[in-house]
């Protein structure tokens, strides 16, 4: 498809300076040329879109999304992240009171609890007391725990588990909870993707546990893939991926080049090495206050020898490792594994980082995948749990100053797919009316934008036609104004995915 963008102004992401008005010709999914003035395309069907001086930047990415959980969360009963178990039970009871019909249908699903500040984990019996005949499962905001009643445990095929599932048990339950009719899931996910196109999102990294490139290709063929998707592989399917010759960044289509470039590509190998702060399972050097026993300092989910083996095998096959590590001991251990293997990769989250580990990211060639909006939700929990030790939390400035490469995302549905919210939090260390948390770790708008554009720093001839025309100047915006920037036009592969023009 050919398209001419008229009277655009390219925004320099390094300096924040807008260029003079220009025309941008898109053709075949690429940027053909950029000149002060270009003739209208000779093809009658080729649209000419007048941007009227709007700023144009490379399309924005969310590098870490659990897509099926994101789609499901849009349909789940929302419970407050600050609610107590008693308050959540009232919310569920109120919702169930509105339902009619038999209870032998789908499990009633809730989303959003945060148990880290509760004195103890609730039981299935607690939820049974208000759920009656309905099977109910409530997934935590960080995805690392799931509260089920007895009927839901039976429906999920795990009647021998406690009502409050954590880590591997929770992930297994969520895979089963995601088994809704394909048509419904695809429709919900398509709605989510099209909605965030209005925020300028052109691509996501799909980190869903059960994601499959073939499923995404089928969605694309059905017209339900309005953005680029890099689909992660988990260790249980690594052999299959290697056997198929899949490699990170490779087009997922079996016969690339036979038509328009597919928007679906192979992502990294996702490995989960520890838990989360909200579940008190992030693996840390110090035990959690009041905790005891072998998991009092969190969870070491993957033994070091196994972690190194996975990293080495994936790298040899051309699949980039991406290892989840939130606690400081987990971060240090993952860096040790990369160092022992002599390879780079990605480290997801890096929420707690020790001074000694800061220069290791750059030295080892490890990219840090951060989710700034987690700061909004986790600051209260971390103040309660760690107190003064929080000086080591969300160290964006320190990591950049030490030479690390940052990329940004949301971990949706833990945080919303919203790059402008993430940029605001990274720049101001807050996402609400409270003052910045541990100021001094802010990064600049320029740095945050460059961490959000998938390594593309400029709109230039030959590049992919993944562009966003903005309604406001991010370099002149602050607070809620910065977080609320929207797209007047979003283009992915030369196709319009969103427009208000």
TrEMBL record:
Top EC class, one word: hydrolase
The reply on keyword Iron-sulfur is no
Q: Does the keyword Ion transport apply?
A: no
Q: Where is the Amidohydrolase domain?
A: 48-497
Query: What InterPro entries does this protein map onto?
Result: Amidohydro_3, Metal-dep_hydrolase_composite, Metal_Hydrolase
Q: GO molecular function: any one?
A: hydrolase activity, acting on carbon-nitrogen (but not peptide) bonds
Q: Which UniProt keywords apply?
A: Hydrolase
Q: What is its EC number?
A: 3.5.1.91
Query: What is this protein called in UniProt?
Result: N-substituted formamide deformylase
Gene from which the chain derives: nfdA
């Amino acid at each position: 498809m050919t398209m001419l963008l008229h009277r655009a102004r390219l925004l320099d992401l390094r300096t924040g300076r807008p260029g003079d008005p220009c025309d941008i010709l898109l053709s075949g999914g690429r940027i053909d040329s950029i000149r002060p003035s270009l003739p209208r395309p000779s093809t009658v069907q080729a649209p000419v879109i007048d941007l009227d001086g709007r700023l144009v930047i490379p399309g924005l990415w969310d590098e870490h999304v659990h897509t099926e959980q994101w789609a499901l969360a849009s349909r789940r009963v929302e419970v407050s992240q600050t609610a107590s178990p008693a308050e959540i039970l009232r919310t569920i009871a109120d919702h169930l009171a509105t339902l009619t019909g038999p209870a032998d249908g789908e499990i009633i699903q809730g989303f959003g609890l945060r148990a880290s500040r509760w004195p103890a984990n609730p039981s299935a019996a607690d939820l049974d007391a208000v759920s009656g005949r309905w099977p109910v499962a409530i997934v935590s905001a960080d995805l690392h725990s799931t509260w089920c009643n007895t009927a839901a445990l039976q429906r999920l095929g795990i009647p021998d588990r406690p009502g409050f599932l954590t880590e591997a048990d929770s992930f297994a339950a969520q895979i089963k909870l995601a088994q809704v009719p394909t048509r419904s899931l695809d429709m919900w996910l398509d709605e989510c993707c099209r909605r965030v196109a209005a925020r300028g999102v052109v691509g996501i990294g799909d980190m869903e546990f059960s994601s499959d490139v073939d499923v995404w290709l089928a969605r694309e063929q059905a017209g339900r893939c309005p953005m680029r998707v890099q689909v992660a592989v988990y260790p249980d399917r690594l052999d299959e991926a290697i056997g198929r010759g899949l490699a990170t960044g490779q087009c997922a289509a079996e016969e690339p080049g036979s038509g328009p470039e597919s928007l679906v590509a192979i992502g990294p190998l996702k490995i989960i090495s520890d838990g989360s702060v909200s579940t008190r399972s992030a693996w840390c050097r110090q035990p959690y206050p009041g905790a005891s026993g072998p998991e009092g300092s969190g969870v070491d989910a993957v033994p070091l020898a196994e972690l190194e083996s996975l990293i080495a095998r994936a790298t040899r096959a051309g699949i980039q490792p991406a290892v989840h590590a939130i606690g400081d001991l987990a971060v240090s251990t993952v860096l040790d594994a990369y160092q022992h293997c002599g390879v780079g990769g990605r480290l997801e989250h890096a929420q707690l980082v020790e001074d000694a580990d800061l220069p290791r990211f750059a030295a080892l060639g490890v990219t840090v995948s951060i989710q700034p909006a987690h700061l909004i939700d986790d600051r209260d929990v971390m103040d309660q749990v760690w107190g003064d030790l929080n000086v080591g939390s969300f160290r964006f400035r320190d990591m950049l100053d030490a030479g690390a490469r940052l990329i940004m995302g949301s971990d949706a549905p833990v945080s919303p797919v919203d790059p402008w919210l993430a940029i605001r939090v990274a720049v101001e260390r807050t996402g609400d009316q409270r003052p910045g948390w541990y100021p001094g770790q802010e990064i600049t708008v320029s740095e945050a934008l460059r961490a959000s554009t998938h390594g593309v720093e400029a709109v230039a001839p030959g590049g992919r036609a993944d562009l966003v025309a903005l309604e406001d100047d991010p370099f002149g915006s602050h607070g809620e104004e910065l977080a609320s920037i929207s797209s007047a036009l979003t283009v992915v592969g030369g196709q319009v995915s969103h427009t208000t023009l």
